[in-house]
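Suppose you are handed a protein chain with no further information: no name, no annotation, nothing but its sequence. What can you learn? This example shows the usual starting point.
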Amino acid sequence: MLKIGVIMGGVSSEYEVSLQTGAEMLKNLDPAQYEAVPVVVERREDLLKQVAGLDFALLALHGEFGEDGTVQGALETLGIPYSGSGVLSSSLCMDKHLSKTILRSHGVATPDWLCWNSLDEVNANAADRLGYPLMVKPNNGGSSIGMTKVNCREELRAAAEKAFAEGGSVLAEQYMNAQEITCPILDGKLLPVIGIRSLGADWFDYSAKYVQGGAEERIITLPPAVQQRVQEAALRSYAALRCAVYARIDIMLKDGVPYVLEVNTLPGMTATSLLPQSALAAGMSFSGLLDELIRLSLAEQRGTGRREVAGHV
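A reasonable first move is to predict its three-dimensional structure. Written in C-alpha cells, the prediction is:
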C-alpha cells in the first residue's frame, strides 16, 4: 500500500485555499489503496522533516513554494515522486509575464499586458494605451488575491499598491469583455470545457471561485470550429510551458478566438473547483481522478527521469 502524503498549507496567501484542496483530497483517497497522511506545511524548513518515509507526495499547495517549482525541487532532491508538472514547468507557469511571453512566441493569443517590478515603474500613460478597464494583479499570485479591476487611470495606483503588497512584480492586463472558459487537461487530452460566469462581481474574483453559489460553472458545448481552436490553444499552451500529467488552461473566448490568460499547474481541487467538475463530466469521480494523477505522475517520473522533457516542442 502506497503511503501518500497530501502536502498542503504553505507560505503563500493561498494557504486557506490549499487547506481546502488538501482536505478534499484526503477525503477522496481510496483507503483500500493508500495510506493517506496529511502534511501541513507552515514554514519552508518544516517540509524536509515531514515527508520522510513517504512513497508519494500529492501536492495540494498553491502559490509561492507550491506552484513555483520550489517544493518540486526539494522533493526531487529527496527522491520522493510527486504529482503534476516538474520544476521547470512549475516555475514558468507561475510567472505570468514569462509564460505569456512564451505563449506569444508559440503563436498563442493572450491579452496585451505590462509588467512592473516596483511601484516606481507604474506608468499611467502605458496603461492608458492598454485601454480601460484593465486587470491589475500580482505576477506570481493566484486565486484572484491582490487582483483589481481598474476602470480608469485614477484607480490605477491604488490597485498597483494592493498587488505589490502581495510581493513580487505586478501585471496590468487588458480586460476582455468575453466569455470565460477553462480547459482542464489530463494526460495530454482535453477534458470537457467549462464556461464560467460570476454571479456577484463582474469578474471571477475570490468569492466567485471559492464560495458556494458565487459563480455559474457548467459544461458547455462549443461550435465545432471554435472547439477546435480552443483545443489547439489549450494543448499548445500545455506543451509550450512543458506541463506534465495535468493542468488547467484559463481562456477568454471573444468572437470565436481563444485568448489564454494563464496555465495552472496545480489547479484547485476543492469541492467547488473546476477540474473535478470537468473530470466528473467525463465520467471520472474525484477518487478516480486522484488515482489517475498518482498513476500518471509515477509513470511520468519513472519513464522520463527528467520531467521537463514532457511536452517538449
